Amino acid sequence: MKNLSAFLFSILDKFMRFIELPTVYLQKKIGVQRMGYLFVAPNMVLFSLFVFLPVGLAIAYAFTGGTNMLIWDRPFIGFENFSRLLNCGSYMDPASCEFDLFWTAIHNTWWYTLLNATGTLVMALITAVVLNRLTKGKALFRSIFFYPVLLSPVVVGLIWKWFLARDGLLNSLVLDLGGERTIFLLEVWWSRFWVVYVSIWFHMGFFTLIILAGLQAIPRDIYEAAKVDGTSEWRQFWRITLPLLTPNLLVVAVLLLIRSVQVFDEAWVLTDGGGPGTANTFIVQFIYQTAFSSEVRLYGLASAASVLMGLALLALTLIQVWLAKKAEY
Amino acid sequence: MLKFLTRTRHHGKMDITDILSWLWLTLGTAVIAIPIAWAMLSSLKTEAEVNSFPPSLIPQSTVNTQVEGYDKDLSVWKWTQPNGEIKNVALVRRIGIKATVVDIDNPEKTLQVPTSEITQLKDVNFQWQNYTDPLERFDFFTYINNTVFVTVVATILTLLLNSMAAFALSKYKFRGKNAIFMLILSTLMLPLSVIMVPAFIVIVGLNLADNLWGVIFATVATPTGVFMLRQYMLTIPDDLIEAARVDAASEFRIYWRIVLPLCAPALAVLAIFSVIWRWNDFLWPLIVLSSPENYTLQIGLNAFQGQFSVEWHYILAMTVIALIPVTIVFLVLQKYITEGVAGSGVK
User: Fold this and answer.
1) CB B197 to CB A303 under 8 A?
2) Do B164 and A43 make contact, defined as CB atoms within 8 angstroms?
3) What is the ipTM score, two decimals?
4) Contacts of A55 in chain B (CB under 8 A)
5) Which residues form the ABC transmembrane type-1 domain (chain B) (predicted)?
6) CATH code linked to domain A81-328
7) In chain A, which residues have their Cβ closer than 8 Å to the Cβ of B24?
8) CATH number assigned to the domain comprising residue B99
9) B78, B96, B120 — which closes off a domain?
């Protein structure tokens, strides 16, 4: 094993010497400090191709119509994509919209975001506070609670799909307790509940870790002083922990909102593509379907929806940056 | 164990807050572990058992035996006779509440017994074929190959390219350096879900659609990696680099032979993250890859569960395969992972 890695390294080293030759030549031409451009170039090329250019393209495509993929084959149609997406009798009622699926997705995403963000924040906060008071076993439980974060959305979706299946463990427990067998993922409200539940289960550990880091930053002596004064632990939480943690929590909350708006992967796997019907169809799924999996690939419309979502996320990000700056002082 | 559980900061005394804390931790652990453990146990069951309800906890299978005078194997049942004697019998047929059984030791004689007196005999039996069959009969071997390829290549490129960018941004002075750094950080705010449509069009333009390289190239430049490595490189003293320059080492050699080895701890953390990211990637490969021979494990598994939605014994086995590498990485390196996340706020 050691021999093998030494061998691989020597090959890599030879390769690097080969690459070195042209850089030495370049270094003589442009000087030492400008070599920085060379080192940063590969990354910037990839960022340009796969992030900056797409941002420009998203905006450009949003103003074009038709089904051609190449931008020069697409007619410019101004704000038509946006006006069609926003064409609604009433924004409260998706059925009155030209693209009812888009508005159904917005309604679903709105409720999901609200419930998921609140649920995750509360659960992560409680878990972080509980972990923080441990003297022994802290690392162990921190790892246990973090573990689901590392799983893939497909794995999480399938594990829970199996758990909630008609013949699954949960139904067996429900029957044992005298309940009624339910096909949870085929009932509108149950499936929505479980999508939020699974998301909290999946991502909570990540936010727990961030809140825990915030908790550990609170000076210990404040608690020592409170203890000397005989303050109960419950009171310490409300009077010391929570106020001192609030700036931190606000940043986490906005981060949660940003992540929740982008819900797609695990919900998609869990609900077989946003079902039952469109009960769990979210905005990202609408964009994905419009651009990639419908008969006519409406890149312009999908881009317009992306731009709208991007603007919402941008607003949230600006709030987050502002809150994070405030939290530093 | 009990001593460990009851040990608290107030020595010897357990108050209501401690009890609630431990309740929360126990409950939380159960909620996290049970679905995963359940999927793992189920993945080792036979097809018939996976589909039976109510489910059994431990993977079991029915016991069959050959009995003289019968063409097919008969299932073995435990017969509790009215006098309390227990005997193993083989079931021939059952009609309503009556069952025709045959004494295994004495196959000529058949008996009529009420079904309430017999229970089927089961053996603990791990169905490892659930893991090997999909590799042979379906394309899972290809999927795993593709995923390993993407994970390894993308991680190596991520380490190389991100460290080069970090080196430039921490050790050189050039015009536009801060602007470039801000641009890289700004990509943190542009999630894939917003730019997936045009990003795919770029992939088509580069002729990389339905190509593993299309999956790789779009993911190797990471703002997280550049930021993490830059912060680390800022702690490397400039004198070291100056000394190397005096010795006439080229800039590229300084990067490769001095800076990179010194960054080993930070590179290791980034490598761990990169492996986990790439192994788990879903949305981007889903968009880029369209033919099954190019699927990664996550995409292949998702397609398989859509197509063969009743083959849960295979689906679950492959789900376990998909979670094992990440689990091993986590078990070995959990300290670095949790500290890396807490320190940089990325996952």
Assistant:
1) yes
2) yes
3) 0.90
4) 190, 195, 198
5) 144-333
6) 1.10.3720.10
7) 126-127, 130
8) 2.30.30
9) B120
